[in-house]
Write a structure and sequence with these properties.
52% of the residues lie in helices and 16% in strands. The protein contains ten helices and ten strands. The protein is globular, with a radius of gyration of 21 Å.
Length: 380
């Protein structure tokens, strides 16, 4: 059991969950193929569903609460073992999150059990070419057409784009200016008028795409919540999963520290090991301190949310500290590995590519700084 699980943030069930997942990861994620990212993601989603892990990412019944600490422990553990496994788990939660929060009984029954079993792949479609961090600026629009909405426009940077079975889509319906005129819709991937316009390749391969909507007709029964309330729903969904991004970064950082310690204690140079040099010891000490600092902020935010408290500031602090800190820890691990650290396929090289995106998605570092400052200034 990891030492931090002794912290008072956790209950016995959390410790048991982490131990069980660690055993499962060791057995199932040691040799995951990478030749076909789409196929690998589909396989991982199915495996995670069959093993029961995906049920933690959804709220199966109205009124059920998603356990934020459980989500974070699962993401930290998966990320420590395999970045794409973490991605596959997280996107099922994020993609179905709005349905968990505000879905009708029929919507929940149609989508959530399939998501939990790994039989349906979910996606969260919010960002646009000119509306990333500034969500209220989105332009993809849906006009009212009797018993349906007709959608025109584009979305981009959509995780699981191209392999998803459905998209939770946020569109402008115009009830009011800005963020008050946005509505959430569930759009099945085979709906006429929905096209995968472009697949986007990243430095750490994940399924990603730009979507185009041309006269895409969606029944109003696919609307999530009230018209014009989609922005609030998107923010509530992100509020659940933003802290878990910090947890994923923490998992990457812990793996990098493990790799750095292994290298430092076995690499011979100048008649001693790399770990015998004081400069190496100072670097390892800084890495360990950064990891623990991020962990404390991450699980403080997760614990507070599970107590029903507002965690806007705490979640932003956790994401900022964990993602920026993980970048520093992983960079230090690459440096300790030397030339071997930049060889394609080396664990620290893979981590170096994996961590970069986490500093941007679900709110870039600069946006987190603005959120923290705004929350601080409320009290002045």
């Amino acid at each position: 059991m990891s030492a931090h699980l002794d912290w008072p943030f956790f209950e016995p069930r959390h410790r048991a969950l982490e131990a069980a997942l660690s055993r499962w990861c060791t057995e199932h994620l040691a040799d995951v193929p990478h030749d076909d990212v789409d196929a690998t993601c589909r396989r991982l989603v199915k495996q995670l569903g069959e093993a029961g892990w995906l049920q933690h990412a959804i709220a199966a019944k109205p009124g059920d609460a998603i356990d934020t600490r459980a989500i974070c422990l699962l993401r930290e553990t998966l990320a420590r073992h395999h970045g794409l496994a973490d991605f596959s788990f997280a996107m099922q939660g994020l993609g179905a999150g709005a349905i968990s929060l505000d879905g009708t009984a029929a919507q929940r029954e149609r989508y959530l059990p399939r998501v939990a079993r790994g039989d349906a792949i979910a996606a969260f479609a919010l960002s646009e070419p000119e509306a990333g961090s500034d969500v209220a600026a989105l332009a993809c629009a849906a006009r009212d057409d009797g018993d349906a909405y007709v959608i025109d426009g584009e979305k981009t940077w959509i995780s699981n784009g191209g392999i998803a079975d459905f998209y939770v889509l946020f569109v402008r319906t115009g009830e009011a200016p800005g963020s008050r005129g946005i509505t959430a819709l569930i759009v099945d991937a085979d709906t006429p008028g929905l096209q995968i316009a472009e697949r986007i390749a990243l430095i750490a391969p994940h399924p990603l795409a730009r979507l185009r909507f041309s006269g895409c007709r969606v029944p109003k029964t696919q609307r999530l919540g009230e018209a014009g309330q989609g922005f609030k729903l998107a923010m509530r969904t992100l509020d659940i999963f933003r802290t878990s991004v910090a947890a994923a970064a923490l998992g990457f950082a812990r793996r990098a520290l493990d790799e750095a310690l292994q290298r430092a204690t076995t690499r011979k140079m100048f008649g001693q090991t790399l770990a015998d040099f004081q400069i190496t010891q100072a670097k390892l000490a800084q890495m360990a301190t950064t990891v623990d600092s991020a962990a404390l902020l991450t699980y403080r935010a997760a614990w507070q949310r599970d107590q029903g408290r507002n965690v806007t500031r705490e979640a932003a602090m956790a994401k900022l500290a964990a993602t920026e800190g993980a970048q520093q820890v992983i960079d230090a691990a690459v440096q300790l590995w030397g030339g071997a650290g930049v060889v394609s396929g080396n664990t620290v090289e893979t981590l170096y590519r994996e961590i970069r995106a986490l500093r941007i998605y679900e709110g870039a570092t600069e946006v987190q700084q603005l959120i923290i400052a705004r929350e601080l200034l409320k009290g002045t």
